[in-house]
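tokens incoming
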């Protein structure tokens, strides 16, 4: 009987179980935003996106309005990260 081995294995089981549960939750959350990602992909570079960005550039939008979606980098970076995650999940 090796008490230390059993303790170590129990710790490994607890860590692995927590990690698997966290990954399951993250995958469910990720699956829930797939439509959002597709919408952002379609929006970036679209006539609507260009019109919204033009409105921002000439000051037609309220100053307090969040406008991260109007920077090409914000959506582009998200889409690239999304593509990389898809590759990893395969």
């Amino acid at each position: 009987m090796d008490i230390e081995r059993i303790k170590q294995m129990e710790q490994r089981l607890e860590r692995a179980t927590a990690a698997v549960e966290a990954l399951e939750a993250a995958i469910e959350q990720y699956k829930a935003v797939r439509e959002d990602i597709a919408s952002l992909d379609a929006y970036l570079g679209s006539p609507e996106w260009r019109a919204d960005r033009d409105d921002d550039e000439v000051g037609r939008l309220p100053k307090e309005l969040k406008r991260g979606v109007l920077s090409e980098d914000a959506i582009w970076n998200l889409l690239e990260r999304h593509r990389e995650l898809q590759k990893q999940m395969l």
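note: The chain has two domains: 1-32, 34-90.
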